[in-house]
Amino acid sequence: MTNVPKKLFIKTYGCQMNVYDSERMAETLAGQGYETTQDQSEADMVLLNTCHIREKAAEKLYSDLGRIKPLKVANPDLKIAVAGCVAQAEGEEIVKRAPMVDLVVGPQSYHRLPEMEARIQTGKRALDTDFPEDDKFEVMKSRPKVARAPAAFLTIQEGCDKFCAFCVVPYTRGAEVSRPADRIIDEARGLVENGVREVTLLGQNVNAYHGCEGGLAGLCSQLSQIDGLERIRYTTSHPNDMDDALIAAHGDNPKLMPYLHLPVQSGSDRILKAMNRKHTAEEYLRIIERIRAARPDILLTSDFIVGFPGETDADFEDTMALVREVNYGMAYSFKYSVRPGTPAAEKPELPLAVMDERLQRLQALLKEQQVAAQEGMVGKTTTVLFEKRGRTPGQWGGKSEHLHAVHVEAEGELRGEIHKVEILNAMTNSLTGRIIG
Ligand code: SAH
Ligand code: SF4
Ligand code: F3S
Predict the structure, then answer these.
(1) What is the pLDDT of residue 140?
(2) Ligand 2 pocket, 167 CB below 6 A?
(3) Which phi and psi (to 5°) does residue 8 adopt?
(4) 0.90 exceeded by pTM
(5) Domain 6-128 top-level CATH class
(6) Mean pLDDT, all residues of the chain
């Protein structure tokens, strides 16, 4: 083997957990002599890290593969790898349908990448979509000591046992598994030594974390003892796992940022039941009330699905009413998308025009609330973790405590610094301010 590094190009779809996994895969493949590139045309390996959450996921993969094909024709040594949730759900189909794909690996098998890479170098193909017993992160190469961006993701929990009627995640990511707290603390320490000031703890159901005493609140409390780690966030949470200790932590733990993504999906009890969410709208609202009692300025966000099978106009109005009552700082909303193999796929779908109209109305309301929340920041003081220079010279950008993008005019190097900022102006997707401390 020569010592010239091979080039790895990764394209990542889907949730933050895929973003984290892509980093870990790149670090693992570094052991096989790869360094990452942003330029697909010079790649020795193209890795597509896919998402299966809504329809068209597989189509997107095949059209990406179509675009890569000329590269493979020009360079027959180019290796094509497919990872992520489409790989898990449709691995064998991909192998059959796309002969140009050399390697298919499901999310729970990433620690086997080195052997798989060695295999494809001998001209064979490799497929692994097992759910092995071993925790991939304990087997994967430990994280290298390299300079990192001030804000990092850290996966602490994977998989899901909730089986919402519309969702593929329990099938693509497997059963819920929590990583041991001591490993997470070690990883967080390593990140902080390399420049990280803020971690976002990730899991499909992050607040179901049970890798240490006290669950997620206990882990946050241990993490907040790390000097130099200034901010902690977590996502995504399920309302039924918002326990008393975690709610209290939002009032007591100053490193826990006042931002919470707590998806409710619908405001109708009938639909929540059909979705198998296992809570009512009222129960969700009471949880929100308790969280706000612990941390009055918390910014709340959610996910919504409109047009779930059987959703009537009255059900949709219940969703609109819940949104008005909560008053979100931001939220994501999607049209229901039928996923083969899930219980909801058995039920008749609503007409597309009905879903479109509902989605537009919901998004208009959510947008109004987002704009109001941003405008509500004007005149207030917050802290900002600065991450990068702005597009115009003399400008710096970072994130506020409430995860708003904030820009200030400033000279010098602010990367990784946290400053007090007075917010002066609200724009559509960001705020501007001035440093006051
Ligand atoms: N574990 C998280 C979310 C995982 S998926 C939770 O329980 O909230 C992210 C979001 O995608 C979901 O919150 C849901 O709003 C949306 N989603 C999942 N499956 C979907 C489907 N079949 N159709 C439309 N949206 C879907
Ligand atoms: Fe999917 Fe529900 Fe699990 Fe979230 S809680 S990942 S929506 S099954
Ligand atoms: Fe998508 Fe898998 Fe994440 S389906 S949302 S990449 S868990």
Answers:
(1) 82
(2) yes
(3) -115, 125
(4) yes
(5) alpha beta
(6) 95
Q: What would the pLDDT profile of 139-187 be if each residue is shown by its tens digit?
A: 887 888 899 999 999 999 999 999 999 999 999 999 999 999 999 999 9
The closest ligand to the CA of 302 turns out to be 1
Classify domain 270-375 by CATH architecture. Answer: 2-Layer Sandwich (3.30)
Distance (Å) from CA 408 to ligand 2 centroid: 38
CATH superfamily name and code, 381-435: Nucleic acid-binding proteins (2.40.50.140)
Mutate-to-test residue for ligand 1 from 15, 260, 305, highest number of ligand atoms within 8 A of CB: 305
Same fold, 6-128 and 270-375: no
* Gap between the Cα atoms of 224 and 233, Å rounded: 11
Tell me: pLDDT of 435 over 80: yes
Q: Is 304 exposed, middle or buried (0-12, 13-18, 19+ CB in 10 A)?
A: buried
Distance (Å) from CA 267 to ligand 1 centroid: 15
- How many Å lie between the centroid of ligand 1 and the Cα of residue 169? 9
Ligand 2 pocket member 162 (CB < 6 A): yes
Q: Are 269 and 158 in contact (CB under 8 A)?
A: no
Cα gap 377→379, rounded to integer Å = 6
| DSSP letters spanning 248-269 | HHHHH-TTB-SEEE---B-S-H
170 lines ligand 2 (CB under 6 A): yes
Protein residue whose Cα sits closest to atom 1 of ligand 3: 51
173 in ligand 3 pocket by Cβ < 6 Å? yes
Q: What is the pLDDT of residues 229-281, one digit of tens each?
A: 999 999 999 999 999 999 999 999 999 999 999 999 999 999 999 999 999 99
- Amino acid in the structure at residue 288: I
Q: Are 260 and 300 in contact (CB under 8 A)?
A: yes
**Is 341 a residue whose pLDDT tops 70?**
yes
Domain boundaries, the chain: 6-128, 145-257, 270-375, 381-435
Q: How many angstroms separate the alpha carbon of residue 241 from the centre of ligand 3?
A: 20
Give the model's confidence band at 2: pLDDT under 50 very low, under 70 low, under 90 confident, else very high.
low
The sheet with strand 259-261 has its strands ordered as: 259-261, 299-306, 330-335
Does the pLDDT value for residue 221 go beyond 90?
Answer: yes
Q: Using a pLDDT cut of 70, give the percent of the chain over it.
A: 99
- Cα of 373 from ligand 3 centre, angstroms: 29
> Looking at domain 145-257, which of 3.40.50.1370, 3.30.200.20, 3.30.1330.60, 3.30.750.210 is its CATH number?
3.30.750.210
Question: 232 with 198: CB under 8 angstroms?
Answer: yes
- Write down how long the chain is: 437
pLDDT of residue 131: 84
Structure token pair of residue 35: 């360094």
